[in-house]
Amino acid sequence: MADRFNMKRRAVPCLALLLSGAAIAAAPPDAPSSPVAHPALWPSAHSPAAITDAATERRITQLIARMTLEQKVGQTIQADISSIKPEDLDRYPLGSILAGGNSGPFGDERANSSRWAEVVRQFRAHSNAAGVPILFGVDAVHGHSNLAGATIFPHNVGLGAAHDPSLIQAIGAATAEEVTASGIEWTFAPTLAVPQDLRWGRSYEGYSSDPTLVASYARAMILGLQGPLVSGRPLAPTRVAATAKHFLADGGTDHGKDQGNASLPERSLIATHAAGYPPAIDAGALTIMVSFSGWNGAKHHGNKSLITDVLKRRMGFEGLVVGDWNAHGQVDGCTTTHCPASYNAGLDLFMAPDSWKGLFENTVADVRAGRIPETRIDDAVRRILRVKAKLGLLDGRAVRDEPAQIGTPAHRALARRAVAESLVLLKNEGGLLPIKPGSRVLVAGDGADNMAKQAGGWTITWQGTDTAKKDYPAGQTIYDGLSAAVRKIGGTATLSPSGQFSEKPDVAVVVFGEDPYAEFQGDVPTLAYRPQDGADLALLKRLRAQGIKVVSVFLSGRPLFVSPEINASNAFVAAWLPGSEGGGVADVLVAGANGRAPRDFTGRLAYAWPRDARSPVTQALFPLGYGLSYARPGRVGMLAEAPGIDISAALNLDRYFQNGRVLAPWSLRLNDSGGMRPVTTGDVASPTGALQSRSVDLAAQEDSRSLRWTGDAALTVEGPRSNLSRELLEGFALVIEGRVDQVPAAPVKIGFAGFERDASSLFGRAGPLRLAIPLHCFTDDKTKLTAVENPLRISTGGPFGLTIRRVGLEAVASQVCP
Ligand code: BGC
Ligand code: BGC
Q: Are the CB atoms for 590 and 433 separated by under 8 Å?
């Protein structure tokens, strides 16, 4: 592997030289083609003097003078807990450790806060060899969101709708209290993206498409997380270092592609995407993370003009610049284990989750050979030590372990208030809302009692897909909240996700929306909502046809084209990704005691709502700032339902089967010696009858399909060519959920993209089934996965009974092959 990388490296010239700002006669700032910034055009800013007080600087100078080259290089590298042991630090004196989205302490995603503190303590104990403790970071991006039991605040898309900087500051402080109570001192937040094309899967991490709002929140969140900086004094023990991310224009990539390229004139970079950085820096942000993405063809991780000339010089940033997850490996001429170009561009701390060892060795050699000036390493180490000093790490900052400070009633109340403030009322025909005293309420939709859906990605796990109510011990689903509030005013609430009822309700609240996703898993080709699956719309229409008034509560990480769903609803509320405190929804939707008006809607759109499925949104259906309230009602007539484009293009290439249906563009086929038969609905058998299939109920009506083999036959999923090499690189697995009805009599093989494995052992017991086979178990050659047409084949030669409920590709923590 290393050889392959080395060959590649030698062949490529050093891009950093090409990008070294002022030395080059750059194209004019309006030209969309140059990746070289003109610092003088950018706003200036300055880290507070309290970061660089003279006494601390002197102390840092002395520390650096005593460090060996290995210790200095070690400071500039960060490893992930899933790929390093505390003892490794005795030999490799790394400066920082992170726990990424899928990395829980001791391999446990659900570890409690004391286990988190323990993992920090262990790494800290081994880091004193270098004389300087490690810095430990996590993605606490909406509350301490990796920790089961923490308060989960609404994702930033919802906080944007609240238009309330003081709320943001309070959330920052509460988050810091929970993070530090589990021993951690650094969060990779806030995201200061200013998303412009909402097909981007990370749109929900951005507060708004409006740079002014992002700028005001940037300051508030930094102050909330860190508190004010005081010269010569460390942050309070309940505060954490913040990270303004991802520098720059992560929300400005072409077609909203995650980690993509922003083809933009420099002035858009400045006017739109840079807006949050000067206020974040002025407020004292201790760290800034560089974006995976690039600008005009050059990845930011190698762009000296942006990192050094703009960020460090023009914007006077004195803290540390951290890289993103192996992102330096994407710079021309670099690999994840070797990247002088990023060092020379000005990156200080490398996020090298699993590549730290090679990067350490190669970097030491680079400095010895003069490919990286030692002064550059000294500057990086100085900035890293500044942050450590500010956190009190150089003065024995304690690893706190205070479970009682996590998920406190006060934090939950704050989160609940944030939920209430984030709701945006898009339609309220005939004053259906608020729900009146004595109402019989049917609560329907698959989001009604679904913590994973209301919390979204970056919650407990990276993708957030596989969490359950028990992971949120004190949390409330939206149904829980509605039920409590409706009962208080003499009504009843009945939960039925599928919308069935025995007694006709007065009103139905239908909660539905996007399933959780993170990063590129959420990228979509159009703004159509679930083009391959009209189940939610059908539910709304069925309820209306039964003469029931319908309130839709839409859960999503972004505005989507839902005009048909809005037409089918009497009232429609955008609730975003509210987090663990679902009760905040009822606080606004349900009347108070004696029929008094509840808290009114104050949320207003922080992103324009699209008129059709096209993106970017050129003509909004509801503009930025829109939002009705009880005090300011408004009328919404029938909306045009044309999506404006061919939405069959809106395909999710990672999901094949769900809710009892195969998802377009895929097809499900039964093959045997007699040929092939596609599965549509109802009962189907392969041509000779060796494999029979029918629709069955596992948890809900017709949510699954049973497969009964009696002889040699195969089930296959087939469709258009899709490129799954990214899924391979990111550790995705082929996931099948359902039930083993009858254990197989003959070997069972599972195929993916033409590769097969014997999987008999996975079906050895009748009962519920969830299997996840990492893609690398089929092949580790990504070039074999650039045009996959057959992502699944299950075959056997004798009796076997299997029910499938869900089939697709998902990010998983365990990479063990069965
Ligand atoms: C994301 C960052 C995150 C980091 C660590 C990256 O993939 O882009 O936002 O902080 O992983 O989990
Ligand atoms: C990690 C995340 C990281 C992502 C990068 C995942 O395996 O857990 O933290 O952001 O990979 O793509």
A: no
